[in-house]
Design a protein that fits this description.
Elements: E1 7-10, E2 27-32, E3 44-49, E4 54-58, E5 67-71, E6 78-83, E7 90-93, E8 96-99, E9 106-108, H1 109-113, E10 123-126, E11 134-135, E12 144-149, E13 155-158, E14 175-183, E15 187-196, E16 202-206, E17 215-219, E18 221-227
Antiparallel strand pairs: 1-2, 1-5, 2-3, 3-4, 6-7, 8-9, 8-10, 10-11, 12-18, 13-14, 13-17, 14-15, 15-16
The chain binds zinc ion (2 copies).
Residues 84, 86-87, 89, 107-108, 110-111 line the site of one zinc ion (ZN).
Length: 236
């Protein structure tokens, strides 16, 4: 699974210091490497960090993996017939987590990472609806990392793919994220609803939808936690 729009955090072979603004900060895959390309070779991807920084990373290049998938809902991954037993939402968006100890018990990523259900129970992770389930260690033993970036409450300004004139009130003006949501049935958690401080105008902007990123943060906000070793390594 390697597609533009996937939301990522630093991974096992990371050696790039604070390019991501520190562990737990989120970015979006915006470009895939191509065989023969000098600047962006095969088995690399370009990541647009929520901070606005942009660099390429190894996703199998020379056997190294710099990134993990923190959310694949923005590329449209879903499990249409599965209900999350945490938030009761029908049709899990993104990765699915299934308890191996309880009968027919599933969680979405948000609920799993928020410690819904017994943290001693072992879960299987289904990366997509076609994936084979992979068994995770129990969450009680996991290293828990704070997720940071463009989430509710973040202070943002126009970013790299901005294409919306002066909706923000002009270059350099800031706004607040009031919601992260999906775009129709196409993608989940892929756009941010922003109210611009100067004008009070509110609209949604791409945050992974179709691999585009309209925003960057001036001040990141807290997006919950994740278990580092439970996230899939991108490109593996
Ligand atoms: Zn849920
Ligand atoms: Zn259970």
């Amino acid at each position: 699974m390697l597609e533009v729009g996937i939301r990522v955090v630093r991974g096992p072979d990371w050696k790039w210091g604070p390019q991501d603004d520190g562990e737990g900060h989120v970015g979006t895959v915006v470009e895939l490497g191509r065989p023969g390309s000098a600047t962006s070779p095969d088995k690399t991807v370009v990541v647009q960090w929520d901070s606005g920084a942009k660099t390429n990373y190894r996703v199998g290049y020379q056997g190294a993996y710099d990134l993990r998938v923190v959310d694949n809902a923005p590329i449209g991954v879903k499990h249409p017939n599965i209900i999350c037993d945490g938030c009761k939402r029908q049709g899990i968006a993104g990765m699915r987590w299934k308890c191996t100890r309880c009968e027919d018990y599933d969680l979405c990523t948000i609920c799993y990472m928020a410690d819904v259900h017994d943290v001693n129970h072992v879960f299987q992770r289904f990366e997509t609806a076609n994936s084979v389930g992979e068994e995770m260690p129990p969450r009680i033993d996991g290293a828990k990392i704070q997720l940071r970036g463009i989430f509710v409450g973040a202070k943002v300004m126009r970013g790299p793919d901005w294409d919306w004139g002066n909706q923000d009130g002009g270059e350099g003006k800031t706004g607040r994220v009031i919601d992260i949501r999906g775009w129709d049935n196409e993608s989940g958690r892929s756009v941010a609803n922003v109210t611009w401080t100067g004008s009070g105008f509110t609209n949604v902007y791409r945050l992974g939808h179709k691999g585009k990123v309209d925003l960057k943060y001036v001040q990141a906000s807290f997006g919950g936690f994740y278990y580092r070793d439970h996230l899939p390594v991108l490109g593996k």
